[in-house]
Design goal:
There is one protein chain. The chain is an alpha+beta fold. Among the domains are: 82-197, no CATH class; 345-463. 51% of the residues lie in helices and 6% in strands. The chain is built from 21 helices and seven strands. The strands form two sheets. Strands 3, 4, 5, 6 and 7 form a five-stranded antiparallel β-sheet that branches. The protein has a two-stranded antiparallel sheet with strand order 1-2. Helix 12 packs across helix 13 and helix 16 packs parallel to helix 18. The protein starts with a helix and ends in a 6-residue tail after the last helix.
Amino acid sequence: MSQAKHSTISSLIRYLMAFGLMLVMSSVFAARPAGEIGKDWGDPAGEECVDCHRTENPGMTMEWNHSAHGQAGVNCLDCHKAEEGDKDGWMHKKQLISVIVTPKDCSRCHQTEFEEMDGSHHSKGGQILASLDNLLGEVVGGPEAVNAGCKQCHGSVVEIGKDGKPTPGTWPNTGIGRINPDGSAGSCTACHGRHRFSKAQARTPDTCGKCHVGPDHPQIEVYNESKHGIIYRAKVDEMNLESDKWVAGVDYSVAPTCATCHMSRGGDQPKTHNVGERISWTLRPPISQKINLVKLENGDEFDVKEGGEIPKVGDEAKGSKVVEVLTWKDRREKMAEICSACHSEGVIDGHYKQFDGVVDLYNEKFAKPIAAVMGELKKAGYITPAPFDDKIEWTWWEIWHHEGRRARHGASMNGPDYTWWHGIYDVAKHTYMKWIPELKEAAIKKDGNDKFAQAMLDKYFKPIEGHAWYFEGMSKDQIDKVRKGFEARYGKGALK
């Protein structure tokens, strides 16, 4: 073979290889689906968006292309196109667009999901902006920590500059309770990340763990130590996370995720984007209470604590008509129905008995008496009306806001270590070894003696049987019971 011929063949091979690579790349980045622009593709002008972003932001384009949106022909403009008069609209390549895609924007195609989410606990996540948490962050910490910390989960109030673009101090933000320029609350991309919008991603516990993590809401840590979490990690490839239906006990049976229990189909329960609908206890405040749910005609909803007056269907409440009422028992039955896809009635009833027992223990033995004393301290002038300027307030904050929540969430999700060592143990230790000494210090500082503190303990703590060991010492029967257990396991004389 002549050298020239060989060179020609080599060049042809290189050309074919390059052409093949181009075909592969074009298939990766190609707009989907193939077909008529404007008919199969959504907004015709979106083709130009894709062509440009394919070069400028290839990763973004690839994510979109692999998404259900991309495969169905939903393009950039279908989501990002703004209307005249939108405060967050600005001209880009002869198109009026908005960087922010709000739940209201998503509702053009996902109306049911929007309505369920709009009134839910998630959409109200931004209300932290008026809470003690936010005061602690803004004043004790600093606004910068709040912007990059608290608001990235709870959501910022997105501000728009004169150019129609969101301001750097409030954007980027995918907080679940974000307050958007169009008046809507929430962010679908908090769970369905841009630009893939994956169902599978939203169903994984790791997605929820972005925000439900840490000392005050350790749900992901509790889940990971629970039997459910252990099995999920071992068998995640059997979870069928991309399923359209994703029904517990039908499409998968390995283990539940957060989405399984709070949002997805199971038993006779339909799927929902209202994450709080199946919650019967509130585990967030200093003292837990069972909660009834009232849904309104305007799409909003609110909780009524056990013992409070519950409006009836048809009544007017908070400026709208009541359309549905779910008692705490109704909500619990909804959750139990999900559990029944994989568990027997006895297991479910046993779980709730254990869970309720821990919440009641925390409430009655610790939270209620401490809260009562804190109120009397403030009323009598032993601490100031302002929060966080007395040491005892910090201790109480951590008892309920951190340790008490860990205990309650641990019990709710079968996390034994979080129920005890990270939970009730810490609650007890800091009650007896920090809070009570600080109570006496506050009394001595004002009066020169601890008579007020002793009176508070006599009034609120001594009547509770569980505190008898602290005031009177552990009884001989209590010690003997433990001694017998030790000796049965480790031999006579094991407990000194």
